[in-house]
């Protein structure tokens, strides 16, 4: 097992990792920018190192500074959390060259899944259902037209280096295709320095359902069910839940087994999330994330499994703590991502939290790194905290999250809590009747003010 883990992150996920380390008896090193000297993760870690000025590029993304912090503290492993360097294969390689463990998958698997064309090709080869499409890069308008005619319009042009919705263009008909290709290409080139694009059938009203997996790197892997993340705004997840209101136990077991088998064949190591679009009873692979995700607590609440503990033990060469048969899904969990933003305009609202009172009680979990008197800096994401609620069934979970949101007090800044109070009382949400476009439509029709 590791002796000392350096946490290359900030905010709630840095705290989440600290907690797992403490329970494992592992010493912790926090790193922070000069804007984060008063941050909770710095206070709670055994040691801390300042790694640079506020811009992430010069601090949380600064690989030489992180290596130096490992060197001076003697850390033998790095946990990257999510965002920042979590899916940077080169960072994982550099750590390996310095005999420091990266708590995550192999650089090979990070790189494979970072290329969306290669990821999809691999998924298909491993028996995972994929969206019909070009199955490779598109090199000419003629080739694009052939694929588009074969799969039928509308089609979607996606960037190989993309993901998270960047560099996507819909072509509704043959007349749109050439322009969609060139726009997607030039956007991809300027955003990622790579203009490779591919083509997919456009699914009009899918849900976003993702499968959580865990692999031991030796051909052992399990799945931990799904999360329904269909409630999104501008490709940012807003509310996540498990189980998905759209699936039954049989469908869950079927897609879960397909994904777990694929991960066994890959010899995947660590936690991973395989993302699907789900429409008319069918799953279509879109991408795989090779990191711990913001919404992982939803899975923890219904399985009772500590995913960060598993990540750390597996990275140290340990075995997965349970078999597929041991994993059962208990009740229902919902997570609300609460941001420091105006709840109607989503304008960021950093600043000082003058009064803070998080909710509590049975089935209520708050993952947050803020405290009363803390000033949210303007340089990073605007997450205030995650409210995760568990109930014996979806209805109990909804009742509980309504009262938990009513208890939550964050004064001094604007937060999206009022939006969530409305969402969890909306009849469509209460019925589980929503897809990836629901929230944008709701907001376009007035949202909080409508
Ligand atoms: C799609 C799609 C429809 N058809 N692919 C957006 C982010 C990226 N990860 C994949 N995305 C989509 N891919 C096909 N073939 C619609 C989206 C999409 C979306 C997906 C998940 C959650 C929210 C979304 C919002 C808009 C578009």
Task: Fill in the keyword field for this structure.
single chain; 450 residues; alpha+beta; Rossmann fold; Dna Ligase, domain 1; D-amino Acid Aminotransferase, Chain A, domain 1; 8-stranded antiparallel sheet; 5-stranded parallel sheet; 34% helix; globular; binds ligand MV4
Which runs of at least 5 residues are low in confidence (pLDDT < 50)?
A: none
Q: What number is the mean pLDDT?
A: 97
Give Rg in angstroms: 22 Å
CATH class type of the largest domain: Alpha Beta
Number of strands: 20
CATH architecture of the largest domain: 2-Layer Sandwich
CATH topology of the largest domain: D-amino Acid Aminotransferase, Chain A, domain 1
Strand content: 25-35%
Which homologous superfamily in CATH is the superfamily of the largest domain?
Answer: ATP-grasp fold, B domain
Distinct helical segment count:
15
Query: What general outline do the C-alpha atoms trace?
Result: globular
User: Termini distance?
Assistant: 54 Å
Provide the structure class: alpha+beta
The distinct ligands, each listed once, are:
ligand MV4
Give the total of domains.
3
Largest sheet: 8 strands, antiparallel
The helicity comes to: 25-40%
């Amino acid at each position: 097992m590791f002796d000392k883990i350096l946490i290359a992150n900030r905010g709630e996920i840095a705290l989440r990792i600290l907690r797992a380390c403490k329970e494992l008896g592992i010493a912790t090193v926090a790193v922070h920018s000069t804007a984060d000297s008063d941050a909770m993760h710095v206070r709670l870690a055994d040691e801390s190192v300042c790694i640079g000025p506020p811009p992430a590029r010069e601090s949380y993304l600064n690989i030489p500074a992180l290596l130096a912090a490992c060197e001076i503290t003697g850390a033998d492993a790095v946990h990257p959390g999510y965002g920042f360097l979590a899916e940077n294969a080169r960072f994982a390689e550099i750590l390996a060259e310095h005999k420091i463990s990266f708590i995550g998958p192999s650089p090979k698997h990070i790189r494979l899944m970072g290329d969306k064309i290669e990821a999809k090709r691999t998924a298909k080869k491993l028996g995972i259902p994929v969206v019909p499409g070009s199955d490779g890069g598109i090199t000419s308008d003629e080739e694009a037209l052939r694929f588009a005619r074969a799969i039928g319009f509308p089609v979607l042009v996606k960037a190989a280096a993309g993901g998270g919705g960047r560099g996507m263009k819909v072509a509704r008909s043959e007349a749109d295709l050439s322009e969609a290709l060139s726009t997607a290409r030039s956007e991809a080139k300027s955003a990622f320095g790579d203009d490779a694009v591919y083509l997919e059938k456009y699914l009009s009203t899918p849900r976003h359902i993702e499968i959580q997996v865990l692999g031991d790197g030796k051909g052992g892997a399990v799945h931990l069910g799904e999360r329904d993340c269909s409630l999104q705004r501008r490709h940012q997840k807003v509310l996540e839940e498990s189980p998905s209101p759209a699936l039954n136990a049989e469908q869950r077991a079927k897609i879960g087994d397909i994904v777990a088998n694929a991960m066994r064949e890959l010899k995947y190591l660590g936690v991973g999330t395989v993302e699907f679009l789900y429409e008319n009873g069918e799953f279509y692979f879109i991408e795989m994330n090779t990191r711990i995700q913001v919404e992982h607590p939803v899975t923890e609440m219904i399985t009772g499994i500590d995913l960060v503990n598993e990540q750390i033990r597996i990275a140290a060469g340990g075995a997965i703590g349970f078999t597929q048969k041991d994993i059962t899904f208990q009740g229902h969990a919902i997570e609300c991502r609460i941001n420091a933003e105006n709840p109607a305009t989503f304008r960021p609202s950093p600043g000082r939290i003058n009064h803070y009172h998080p909710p509590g009680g049975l089935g209520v979990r708050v993952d947050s790194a803020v405290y009363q008197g803390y000033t949210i800096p303007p340089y990073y994401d605007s997450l205030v905290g995650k409210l995760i609620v568990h109930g014996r069934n979806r209805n109990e979970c909804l009742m509980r999250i309504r009262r938990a949101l009513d208890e939550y007090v964050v004064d001094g800044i604007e937060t999206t809590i009022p939006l969530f109070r409305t969402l969890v009382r909306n009849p469509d949400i209460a019925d589980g009747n929503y897809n990836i476009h629901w929230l944008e439509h709701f907001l376009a029709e007035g949202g909080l003010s409508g």
